[in-house]
Amino acid sequence: MRIANPIYDVVFKYLMEDRESAVLLLSEIIGEEIVELNFHPQESTAEFSGRNRCITVYRLDFAARIRLKEGGYRKVIIEIQKAKFSTDIMRFRRYLGEQYRNRENVYHDEDGNRKALPIISIYFLGHRLRGTDRAVIKVQREYYDGITGEKLSCREEFIESLTYDSFVVQIPSLQQPYRSRLEQLLSIFDQHRKVSDHILEINEEDYPEEYRRLVRRLIRAAAEKQVMDTMDAEDDILEELENMERSIEKHKKKLEEKDKQLDEKDRKLDEQERIIAELKKRLKSSE
Fold first, then answer.
1. Measuring CA to CA, which residue among 137, 16, 117 is closest to residue 65?
2. Is the dihedral of CA 22, 25, 29, 35 positive or negative?
3. Contact yes or no for 107/74 (Cβ under 8 A)
4. For 30-34, what is the mean pLDDT?
5. Where are the domains of the chain?
6. How far is the C-alpha of 100 from the C-alpha of 106, rounded, in Å?
7. Measured between alpha carbons, how far apart are the two ends of the chain, in Å?
8. What is the DSSP letter of 194?
């Protein structure tokens, strides 16, 4: 059975626009039950390389209501960002700053006071991290006494509003055998199943019934002409970006080589000046 490759922005967005699919995927990743989810797509359109071509860039934001294990609920902002290149880290930082500045990311307590919503960030990476090959990394805050080192069980609104939990999914590290339900679900991103850049081959029966909604959504995406055409456009633009990066890297190497040559000339001049100064000193002492 063939599905559209969700590593592509257009396919990922198509998948996450289905509310039930989004709730299931996000709940499994953060390990908490989401009972309410509102989708707020953030998109911008930019002209590429001064040509009559545009690319629409999406980042996905959700306002979620989570059922707490100890009872009660809490509201959070869930921000999803997806990157194919390690250089996207600066974009991640910029988007996170925008979330903290957004005056709409608040809720009202029982007394009507405005409170900042906590933020949970989920990063889907199309490249490997240098220090670990783990497929899913959970970065969770803990409180400690700075004097004694004692772990604290309390949670403070001030701290919760200024720090955040995050989850990192390294797509290249997803591979069989899948060791957990979450890894089984995320296998819809497994690039080892590619039959082409755009298509993955999977067996729907390998998935629990509750996960098959996501599989079927991706099957439909593969049949959508507009989705497939946009994947082609993504390929073209990424190829041009890669060509630009190679050209820039080549230019940087040339500049570095010139700098080395100049440094070598400076070193030789310094050496010549030292020798001349030494000869002058000897001549003066022999007079």
1. 117
2. positive
3. no
4. 87
5. 2-223
6. 10
7. 96
8. B
